[in-house]
């Protein structure tokens, strides 16, 4: 009887776990990025969804890498458009370690930063500042090569909130 009761309780627990996972949705479990618009509505992106967006390459040097690198990924503007999150004046990006940085929305039109998923053709991993790293064209725009903008080069981006 104890064995039957134990199996019954385990079945109930397993069912509850599956129901909880289904409620969160598969996309949330596999999301590389979640974007919240100014109204608070969130959109989750997996790698395939991000790769389906308009892509750009920025060849630049950064204070965090050696030499010139080609960074590739979706434009930040394209990500926000796909999430219906273009109304606002500021972006708050948060990294996997909960580090946050604020980026003026005006930077998107002025400088075209990207959410890099690749460096020199190789996918970025958590170990090398990935899977997503906000990159500006520092080498093409010398006015950006200053500490204030370096602080915006947040890596391991997990969320973007528009305010």
UniProtKB/TrEMBL annotation:
Spell out the InterPro entries in the cross-references: OxRdtase_Mopterin-bd_sf (IPR036374), TAT_signal (IPR006311)
Tell me the keywords, alphabetical order.
Answer: Signal
Renumbered to this chain, the signal peptide range is 1-27
Source taxon at top rank:
Bacteria
- Coiled coil feature spans: none
Q: Does the keyword Signal apply?
A: yes
UniProt name for this protein: Oxidoreductase molybdopterin-binding domain-containing protein
